Amino acid sequence: MPPDRSRTVNAQGRQKSCSECAKGKRKCDLGQPACGRCRKQQQSCTYPPQPQAGCEGGSVNLENNLHAPDMSMELEDIGNVTQPLEFSFPNLSDVSNAGPADFDLTAGITSLESLNQMLYSSPDYEDQLVLSRAYTHVEKAFSAAHIAPFAKSRVSWSIEQLKLAPKMMLEQNGTPWQHPMLYEEYMPRSLQDAYAACGLYVAKNGTNNDMVTRFIRDRVGELIAATLPQQASDLLARAHAFMLYQTMLVFGGDITLYSQADTLLPLMDEVANALLPFAAQQDDLTGSLPLYPSTAARTAWAAYIFRESLRRTVLSTFHFVTMCYLLRGQLESCRDHLVIGNRVTLSAHLWNARSAFDFALAWNNKRHFVVKELNFTEVLKEAQPEDIDIFSKMMMIGLQGEDDIRGWFYTRGSTL
Description:
Layout: H1 19-23, H2 36-41, H3 75-80, H4 112-119, H5 125-137, H6 149-163, H7 165-172, H8 189-202, H9 209-225, H10 232-251, H11 258-280, H12 295-327, H13 336-339, E1 343-346, H14 348-351, H15 356-365, E2 369-372, H16 377-382, H17 390-400, H18 402-411
Antiparallel strand pairs: 1-2
């Protein structure tokens, strides 16, 4: 209370407000000659008359109120009369000039961390556990939105191709790293289940979403629990199943599957490393192929299908694993063992051949490039746009960046 005004108390032991504050049902600072609120709003500030001497429960001091207007308590004052309560308020500097707009209720929130502490803090231990579980259970979504521009230019295009893999598997029986004819005669069970999962994934909608998600989760769980096979063909099928499942887990938009995607990453790394020795044992075809009889062409084509599917799968798997870590904000170190001794044949004509005759014709008449240790120098110098298939684009963009490869295609009269 201001020092120039004596304290007066009504019959209920409660201090009065000025008439305007009483009407507005606002707290009055009892300033003289006018309270702070009335001064700010340029209103006439008047106080009700003080109780007379001898009133019950109060003392009389009219020293500073000899000229107070004689007015009775208005109806709004009745609503302000309460039973005496004891509050202890800290002293405020210059309280006579303070109003509701002068208080910043968010002043304590100085950072996101302090907001976190405010939202997720509780004095009760059990409450803290519940809040901690609720806070940490939300997985970080796989998203390319926050990848640095340098990295994004090397993975974004490949990510879009990976998203299409389940649909490509259904419509074309293959992917950019798995030849469509690879499993023409026999498909291991692990890939059969993945193939079925692709069909459900592509057909997923609001009605069957839960069933499809459960099917994918169960099949992935079974594959995670299974030991890695020893035969090259079965190991290759396992890698293809991993790639398809990981695509569905990462890009399907269901955050409940992200924990399985995390679990699958080291297994993908393991299967790719297990395939490396088999890839190193493959011999490249040399010389031309006779068109008749077709025995040599069929043998060469079958060898090419397995050899290049194996080589492409190794590179694509490591590429996918690295992209997944990037999406989670983790940078993977370069893997030198992928470069040393690595070989892959790049030719859209060979990869897209649909018969032994077409393959032999493309082998004899079309340019193909054996890329060693990821050195694409010859490809960039000598290749034409029609020589480059989707897998080749993924690898080239991963090394050079999307803008450079778009420019390379443009200089040759084509587009990426």
